[in-house]
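Hey team,

Filing this mostly as a record. A colleague (T.K.) asked me to run one chain through the structure pipeline before their review meeting, and I want the input and output archived in the tracker in case anyone asks later how it was produced. No errors, nothing strange. Just documentation.

Input sequence:
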Amino acid sequence: MINQLSENTILAPASQCTVRQHDQEYLVYNVKSDELHLIPQIGFFVYQLCDGITNIREIQEELQSRCVSTGGDLQERLYSYVDQLVERGILEIVGDV
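Output structure:
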């Protein structure tokens, strides 16, 4: 993990990205890096929860309340996923309260 994420980290969609639905997945185009990313539905759900207000702990709680089975360590998988989105310029860290 390159970014120092904590349960209090607040993330928001990067302003340089545009999102379009494509079948059951979502295409995210980063204008700044000229990269196109394909995000599955559950990944897009997490992306939407990164609204500039909700912290990672609250996102994890929301996922736990909606998922019957997490299939492993949800916290580890969540941190890894949002870290990848930050590295790719899809999400931005806006605070750590």
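Quick notes for T.K.: The helical segments are 41-49, 56-66, 74-87. The first helix runs from residue 41 to 49.
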